[in-house]
Amino acid sequence: MTVVSTQYWSKVEDGRIQCDICPRHCKMHDGQRGLCYVRACEDGGIVLTTYGRSSGFCIDPIEKKPLNHFLPGTPVLSFGTAGCNLTCKFCQNWSISKARAFDKLQSEATPERIAEAARQTECRSVAYTYNDPVIFLEYAIDTAKACRERGIKNVAVTAGYICPDPRKEFYSWMDAANVDLKAFTEYFYRELCTARLPDVLDTLKYLKHDTNVWFEITDLLIPGENDSDAEIDQMTSWVVKNLGPEVPMHFSAFHPDWKMLDKPRTPIETLKRARYIAQGNGVRYAYIGNVHHHEAQSTYCHNCGEMLIGRDWYELSKWMINLQGSNVGNCQSCDEPVPGIFEGPPGDWGRKRQPVRLS
After folding, report:
1. CA distance 79 to 303
2. Angle at Cα 242 formed by Cα 168 and Cα 66, nearest 5°?
3. How many CB atoms within 10 Å of residue 212?
4. Which of 39, 90, 101, 251 measures 20 to 30 Å from 319, CA to CA?
């Protein structure tokens, strides 16, 4: 087991050490672990116990993160570790995020080895995903630094539950992020995730107003829990008011998993209704995910209505964004700028998933 010291902690009056990586602020005696299970108290400080070890590597389409306005069609090398700082009862990736045994982790992979693997496989970016990179922040940052040296971009897939100081350092090394805005009620976050909604909203506002990170938002709609018209209306209105109309939103379908096996799958009609409400509130780029729907997964110019990027699952079927000259990133029909990161020709990775073994 690889262990590294960390800097985001403080001492509390009763002699315990407080982890300051996320708003949970776990307080531990020596030998104890935080709720995430991977940050532990040792020798009067907090250490990361999973540095350099991953639960797996796979090359995915960037749209699977999901990111629709960041290097569309390109491959991304994805990896995570184990554990999580939230306790979502509906976790769709629970075998990794809820892992409490380190046999879930493969052999050691240094940051340099990951970055080099991304370069060799011609990935345009590396994604810190599968479990929240907040809890393996030091490993993610070191890998991001190695990627930057090779011209490879960095993507965070996260719930946004992180304290201000580590957040500032973490996102200084990220080029893009997808933030999971799980619901828009404090009840949902408290009862189903044991977290707090305001901290996530604060991260979203930070990304918009204090960084150059391109980010998109995902909302997993669970029948009877966070899928009411009123809640979707409140959420999307807040996004437009506080983040602007150009932040893409992905409404994704839930399937029964982990401790929510009694809930049905999300009907596609619910996803379409959420997209309609979002568009009505001014969200210019609203998508639905985890289902097949060519129209609702494609990108349109908000000015002239032209289909800019056609998508059939993760296959790009049409491209109408300028990639040359002074108007790079603009609609080819009306020259309206399209928000996002569009560099070079559109990728043709498609829907492939390619496991990668690092040794």
Report:
1. 37
2. 65
3. 9
4. 251
* Residue reference for tokens 């090779």: 150
Rounded-to-integer distance, Cα 265 and Cα 263, Å? 7
Q: How many residues does the chain have?
A: 359
Contact present, 124 and 163 (Cβ < 8 Å): no
DSSP structural state of residue 276: H
Please tell me the predicted confidence (pLDDT) of residue 131: 93
Which three-class secondary structure state does DSSP give residue 189? helix
Q: Amino acid identity, residue 48?
A: L
Q: Above pLDDT 90, what percent of the chain? A: 87
Q: For 177, left (φ over 0), alpha (ψ -120 to 50), or beta? A: beta
Please report the domains of the chain, with CATH numbers, ordered by start residue: 4-48 (no CATH), 56-297 (3.20.20.70)
What letter does residue 183 receive in the DSSP assignment?
-
Between β-strands 125-128 and 75-80, what pairing exists: parallel, antiparallel or unpaired?
A: parallel
How would residue 232 be classed by pLDDT, with cut points 50, 70 and 90?
A: very high
Helices (H) and strands (E) in the chain, counts: 9, 18
Distance, C-alpha 22 to centroid of its chain: 16
Cβ burial 167-182 (10 Å sphere, 16+ → b, else e): beebbebbbbbbbbbb
Both tokens assigned to 218: 């995902």
Looking at residue 115, what is its pLDDT? Answer: 98
**Cα 128 → chain centroid:** 8
pLDDT-derived band at 260, boundaries 50, 70, 90 = confident
